[in-house]
Amino acid sequence: MHLPFFRLAWLAALLLLAGCSTTPARSAAGRTGSDQTGSEPAPLLLISIDALRADYLGKGDTPHLDRLARQGVRAEWMNPSYPALTFPNHFTLVTGLRPDRHGVVHNTMREEGLGDFRVADLAAVGDGRWWRAEPIWVGAEKAGLPTAIWAWPGSAAEIDGVRPTRWKPYDESVSAARRADEVARWLEEPAATRPRFAALYLEMVDGAGHEHGPDAPQTREAVREADAAVGRLIDALARKRLLDRVNVIVVSDHGMAAVLPGHVVAVEDMVPMEDATIVSIGQSVGIAPRTGRVEAAEKRLLGRHDHYECWRKGELPARWHYGRNPRVPPIVCQMDEGWDAIPAANVAKRPPGATRGSHGYDPALPSMRAAFIARGPAFRKGIVIAAFDNVDVYPLMVRLLGIPARENDGDIAPLLPGLATDK
Ligand code: AMP
Ligand code: ZN
Ligand code: ZN
Fold first, then answer.
1. Helix, strand, coil percent values for the chain (each to nearest 5)
2. Is the pLDDT of residue 2 over 50?
3. Which of 203, 260, 261, 386 is 20 to 30 A (C-alpha) from 216?
4. Could you confirm whether 108 is annotated as catalytic?
């Protein structure tokens, strides 16, 4: 889809670089990416805490993250891209492209000739044909900077013929503390082998939020666990006198909204199964009318309903920047905040009376707000910056690494007030 362009843009970037007298890494490191002595480029560490809602911070559950924010920069919040789901937003964070443009348009997708993509299908998740834009670790590797990635969505795939120098598969059985220790060890290596870009993914806050809801004690406990893992990593870097020489960015992909008991719609009640197939369920519901049944499916679906609204893919609200990608099914139904759409068989399995949590709602909702914290030699200290869109993180990161930016939807401007130099 974006591949021919992909190559062309890379060639253009190479030609540009050929005209530079310094290597890309050094030239930008001198601006914002280097450590305070200027002797060695500062590595960049990107940490994602899945579903860490912006307002989970500062409530007593996140002492380490709050300290990081006090010593660096915190955004009031960060807006996720549509749909506010894990895989689309993780790929947005590392490409600067909205999901409609990078092609990971949902956690569940279908493409003719390629089949079905599901988060739980590790073969699909590791298949580069689903990941058709260049994540920052591929750009870094192409520029000669070693990268090391712990389970960031997409990092198990070879993309454009490139893999991270080191990568760890998604594995929930490895504790957050062990992951933190390993990532710290990567960054403690001698300059020759130390990754210049490292990333870590933590899923426990998302899991607890889904199971128990955003306000549950179990979710607060998961937040404390993720916070402790970040603290452990930060302390390890501090012990080795590396902390002030690493730029650390902590993000989340989206927030979490409470789903009250009974707030669920059966997808079979949205449209008869003889009229359409359901491509994706949940909160952003993708529906493909069957051959000859387009009119019937549209008549039933398009417009406003109790708890959801449906559009043809080309007619979704413009602010979502969504619906042009061939992977987006012909009809998209957006559930209202706090409502899920699932198969009737699963509705019956939901424990009665239990509050759950979901995301995937309108990214403009306060409940969907993601977190952003950054600390290190490139950042000012004790600054709170206004909210921005998550596409803006990529232009910041390529600048810190000093590598060419691929074409993207982001803008570094909202982040400039947080940078120590180059305002
Ligand atoms: P979501 O419901 O959109 O938040 O999906 C999040 C889920 O995706 C997590 O709870 C994990 O089970 C799964 N997941 C996250 N990262 C990966 C990965 N790198 N590979 C496979 N599955 C992942
Ligand atoms: Zn997520
Ligand atoms: Zn989730």
1. 35, 20, 40
2. no
3. 386
4. no
3-state secondary structure 180-218: HHHHHHHHHCCCCCCCCEEEEEECHHHHHHHHHCCCCHH
Of 32, 62, 86, 95, the active-site residue reads 86
Q: How far is CA 343 from CA 267, 270, 361, in A?
A: 5, 10, 18
Q: Is the distance from the beta carbon of residue 128 to the nearest atom of ligand 1 less than 6 Å?
A: no
pLDDT at 41: 80
143, HSE (Cβ side, Cα atoms, 13 Å): 33
Give first-to-last CA distance, the chain, whole Å: 36
- Residue 149's contacts (CB-CB under 8 Å, 6 or more residues apart) are 137, 155, 164, 166, 167, 168, 198, 199
- β-pairing, 257-259 vs 356-358, is antiparallel
Q: What pTM did the predictor assign?
A: 0.92
Q: Which of 6, 8, 287, 284 is nearest to 131 (CA)?
A: 6
**What does the chain come to in residues?**
423
Q: What per-residue confidence (pLDDT) applies to 35?
A: 41
Nearest ligand to the CA of 154 is: 1
* 144 C-beta neighbours (distance < 10 Å), count: 11
The one-letter amino acid at 2: H
Of 87, 90, 168, 200, the one to substitute when testing ligand 1's pocket (max ligand atoms within 8 A of C-beta) is 87
List, in order, residues 6 or more apart from 318 with CB less than 8 Å away: none
Q: What is the mean predicted confidence (pLDDT) over 96-101?
A: 98
Distance CA 52, CA 276 (A): 35
